[in-house]
Amino acid sequence: xxxxxxxxxxxxxxxxxxxxxxxxxxxxxxxxxxxxxxxxxxxxxxxxxxxxxxxxxxxxxxxxxxxxxxxxxxxxxxxxxxxxxxxxxxxxxxxxxxxxxxxxxxxxxxxxxxxxxxxxxxxxxxxxxxxxxxxxxxxxxxxxxxxxxxxxxxxxxxxxxxxxxxxxxxxxxxxxxxxxxxxxxxxxxxxxxxxxxxxxxxxxx
Length: 205
Prior knowledge:
The chain has 205 residues and is α+β, with helices and mostly antiparallel strands. Helix content is 16%, strand content 26%. The chain is elongated and about 55 Å long.
């Protein structure tokens, strides 16, 4: 067994030609979220992967074996639920609302600009359809978020710039109001009544 104990996220720092020449392994999410697992690469070698606790392997990452050889990781296609807003009556907010409710249930979620992905769960699928979301089962790779304080999912990358701003986000104290002067307080309009899907809706989920 060949031991792999080093992980290079997305192969950063490696020449492209070295990554292309590397052997490969294709793993589903259930395996890639573990820090200890065995696998067989494209050259038929048995690999023992031993990474720091909490490490997550993403598609595109590169493992370094004890003999110095490289192993490219691919995310396997697997059954997932693809969740999108109703094309006819939905809005981007519906997707945000769905992500909120799934997050409250601590469900692993892959976040994309126009859809979400979760592992198959008929109870959650029924909940989402009741929220007027479109839910279909597909076979695709799955790269869920891994927490705001750890790895940042499939889009994780290093930044070569600072996030410091040249201005403060503290709110300035309001100026004193002259005696006798009235202040106009803006009032937000009440949200529109939600669309109800019934027999006359005209589309299916």
